Amino acid sequence: MPDLHAAVRAFVEQTVRPQVEAWDRADDLPHAVLEELVALGVTGALVPREHGGGGEVEELDKVGYRGVESAAYRFHAHEAPGAEVLGDAPGEGARQMLDSLDVGRVNVACRALGIVDRCLACAVEESTTREVGDGLLGDHTHAQLRVGELFARRAAVEALVERAAAAVDAGSDAARELSTAAKVVASDTAVWAVDVAARLAASRSYAAGDELARLRRDAPQTQIGEGANDALLLALARPLLRG
Question: pTM for the complete prediction?
Fold first, then answer.
C-alpha cells in the first residue's frame, strides 16, 4: 500500500497538477490519463471473462461534470466467486463500502472547493476589469463585500476539507462525521458561491460557454453525489439527539 500511495502522489504531481486547469477549462478528462491510472492499479473493475466479464460498456454523454467519466456496464450470466465479493470476509462488505464513502465524500468536497475557488477568481476578474460608471465594479463597496465573503468562506471550507481528509487518511474515529460535514458544507458553499459570482457578472454569466454558466450547472451535483445533503444532515443529527 505505501508503494501505491507513492505512485499516486507522483502521478498527481507530474501529470495532474501541470494540466488540471486546462482540463477544467476544456470540461474534459483525456482517456490517456485514465489509462495511466488503470496501469497504476488505481481504478478499473476487473471481471474475468469466464465469470461474465467483457460485457457491454456504454459511455454516458453527460451535459456537464465531465471531469469524472460515467459509463453503464452490462453483464450477462455474471458470477461472483468468493475472492470478488466485497469485504475481507462474508458480512464485512457493508463496512468496507461505508469506509469508501468517507473517501468519496472528501472527494466531492474537494470538487466543491474547486468550484468555490473558481467563483472567487471569476469575481475578482469581473471586479477588476468591468467598468461601471466612471470606475471599476471593484471600486464599489457591494462588490468588495462579496469578494471578501467569497474569500472568507473558501478559507473556512478549505480548512474543513483538509481536516476531514487528514482524519480519513489516519483512520480516525471522527472520519465519517468530518467527511460528511465537509461534503455538506463545501457543496452548499459551492452553490452559494456560483450565485454570488454570477450576480457580479450579471448577464454575462448566462452566455454560452461562460465558465460561470458551467459552474452553475455543475455545482448542484455536489449536493447530491455520495449522499444527498439533507439525508447526510439527518445522519449527523440523530446520534446527537439520541444522547
Answer: 0.76
